[in-house]
Structure formats: structure tokens, C-alpha cells
Amino acid sequence: MDKQTLLRQLPAVDRVLKAPTMTALAENTPHVLLLEAAQETIAALRQAILQGETGLELCPEGVAAQAARLAESKQAASLRHVINATGTLLHTNLGRAPLCDAALEAIDRVSRSYSNLEFDLETGQRGHRFSHIEELLCRLTGAEAAAVVNNNAGAVLLGLTALAKGKEAIVSRGEMVEIGGAFRIPDVMEAGGVILKEVGTTNKTHLKDYAGAIGEHTGLLLKVHTSNYRIVGFTAQVAGAEMVALAKENGLPVMEDLGSGMLMDLSPFGLPKEPTVREAVEAGIDVVTFSGDKLLGGPQAGLIVGTRAAIDAIRSHPMARALRIDKLSLAALEATLALYLDRERAIGEIPVLRMMSVPPKELEERCSRFTAGLKARLEGMANIEVVPEPSAIGGGALPLTELPGFAVSVSPTNVSVDALANHLRGTRPPIVGRCQENRLILNLRTVLPQEEAILSEALQEALK
Ligand SMILES: *Cc1c(COP(=O)(O)O)cnc(C)c1O
Fold first, then answer.
1. pTM of the prediction?
2. 432 CB within 6 A, ligand 1
3. Residues 6 or more apart whose Cβ sits within 8 Å of residue 76
4. Domain end position, chosen among 290, 316, 349
5. Rounded to the nearest whole angstrom, what is the distance from the C-alpha of residue 328 to the centroid of ligand 1?
6. Which residue is closest in CA terms to ligand 1's atom 5?
């Protein structure tokens, strides 16, 4: 058949819209999306005809079926649930920490209706949004006062500008961190109007380096956690308590960006012993900042704890308003922090902590159960086995730490690993694993129990 004849067969937009497949969607799909899908489908078919393609579905029902699929994909939410089978606990691209049930319930409770976000129920007067987490944060860290902003990058920027604008902040050359996504200590300082005064060397900085740099323009001593890298070998950094003693002699505050920040010692789970927020506060640091959605396992937030005077300066700074936390995050944060009052509850209910605490043996058993049912069903289509596989913490925290464990390895027989990975990213919900040579590694540590059945189904579907 020649192209002109084929083009004449293409149905009009109106006919496609009136086809049953499309009218069935009309109830739940905005008309603009249906119209757009019909037009785009017809335009794509016209293009295909002109390029000489054959075997195209050109009857109204066939075109409508293609348009309906397109309309459905336009209608689907862009931001959606993804199954994280990478094993990386705090995958920044996959939304970092999944929230605990208590946090989700708090969001639901507080956001379906009005709330006392900034209303003092005792006096009937205006209240403060920080009041909902200050007492909790002080109890958990031993600090005098607390505030919270949008994220830790915002907390660092706000702290610097509120305490040292127009003055110098002294930082070790070993702590000139770039976190990624344009968060670099020298740039943050510049943005905050603070003058960077670097001291020491990349590998060694001594107390005398800080002492020698203090002058009439000094506003602050800053300590930064080298979250995503380590300087190893011949090294020296100054402990917080020593910096505090020096700063006190000179009437200066010390601020510490702890990065991930931990509210409890996680070394029993095989993590290195890291200073907890409480230890930084006990060392006398005036302002400690850390993230809500890294190892804390809560919503995106920047937590700030410290002395009353420093926190008051931070709270009343004009930039605080621009960085303020929203009520949904605040509700989730309060609920997550409350779990930390009881160590066992925190480990049992906060997903990141729960995933982190699963012993290798248990992961191996989980993987064995998962593969047992699949092996026979995937016979001839893929080789599937349980392999040793560590998990990374991710999110720029603890770069050298790996949690030992096990994962499911899938080697497809008839398709490439890339094709399998692509297919799984296109399923609902999408599944993200790790390609390694001719195997797809699915690490169940970060797969929620209720996601296992979906993962199993999707694998069978993808390989058949
Ligand atoms: C992650 C990190 C930040 C940024 O925190 P966000 O909550 O992602 O804004 C800042 N400083 C350090 C040291 C970090 O590790």
C-alpha cells in the first residue's frame, strides 16, 4: 500500500476520542490529557508512515489503545514509589530515608486539618513552630536550646551568617568539604558573607594553627565533619573540646557541621564509632548542625542545637524565615525524634535503623527464601543465586563503611543485564538494582518486606 493510502486510513482525533478505550478513561482523566494523547499518537503514526514503516495499527480502536496508554503515562504521578534494591541505605537520588509509620501518621493528623503550628494553646497567643521539637531535641542531645530549618545546608549557612557575618571563620584545610550539589564550605561561607580563614594543611591541623589565626576580625571557629571522604595516614585534627577551650579564651563561638549526625551510638551495628550529637554538645560546641534525613532516619530537615544565646541569634536572623521548615516535615520530625527516647523502639521502628541492624545471617535467609520459589520458575530464563554483597550507607555518610550482607544475583539467559535493568525501571513500581557485569544484583536489605512479592512478580514478568 502506498503512503498516501495509509495516511488516509489514519482516524481523525475525534474518532479516537470516541473509541471505547478512550471513553473508559474519560471519567478519571482530564480531557486535555486525552486530547493531547490522541493528537500525539496520530502525529507519531503519520511520521512512521512517512518514514515507510509498515505493519502499523491504524484502525480507530488500535490507535485509541495506543493513545490510552500514552494518556495513562501522562496521568501517572511523576514523583512516585520506587523499590530500592541497591542496598544503599541513604540513596540521595532515591529520596534518602524512608519515614517511619509514626512520622506518616503525624503528617496525616496534622495536615488534614488545622494545627497549633504557631499557636500557644495555653495562652491563646501566637506560638512558635520550634516549640514542638525544642524540648525533645534538648532532651536527646543535652543542649540548652534548639532550632530546625529546611535542611542541613541551610542550617550551616544560617549559623555562619547569624554568628559571623562580615567576620572571619577559621576552618582547617582538612575540612574543606564538598558535599555535592554545589554545597562547598568555601562557597557557603561566601554566600553567608563570612570570610574564610583556612588554617593547617590538608592532612594535619594543630591547635596552634587555630590560635595563630585568631585576630580582631575573627568571628567563629568552624569544625566540619568530612562526611564523604577520609584523610588517612599521617593525619591530625583538633578535637572539639580543645577548640572550645581556645575559643572561650578569646570570647569566640565554635560551630560544628556534623553532617549526618547521630543521636545514638551505632557502632553495635558494625558502624565506626562516630561522635554523637550529645558528645559534640558535651564538648562545649556552641552550635551543632546535622541532617534530619541521613542516619537520623527522618524527613529532610536541618537540626540546630546549642547554647541559648547562639540559638536565639540564629532564630531571630531574617534568613531563618527563608529557610524555615514546613509543617509536614516538622510533624514527621517530632514523631521520629520521639522514638529516640527509647533506643529499642527507635531501632525497631525507624526504617533506616531497622535495615541497618539486620544481621548478615538474617539477610542470607531472606535471600534464600526469596530465591527458593523463583529458581524453578525462572529455569532456563535466568540463573539466580544468593551472593555475599555489602551495603553502603550512602548520602555522603561514612564513605568507607560497608555493612556485610547478602543479595540476590540474577544472570538472565536470553536478554542482556542492561535490558533487564531497563525493564525493571519501567515497571510499576519501578525497581532499581545494581548491574555488575552480566548480573543484576538485588540487595534485599533496602527492600521493604511488603515489596518482596512485587519484586518477585516483576522479575518473572521481565524475564518471560
Ligand atoms: C550532608 C551534609 C550537608 C548537607 O546536608 P543536607 O541535609 O543534605 O542539606 C552538609 N554538611 C555535611 C558535612 C554533610 O555531610
1. 0.92
2. no
3. none
4. 349
5. 20
6. 152
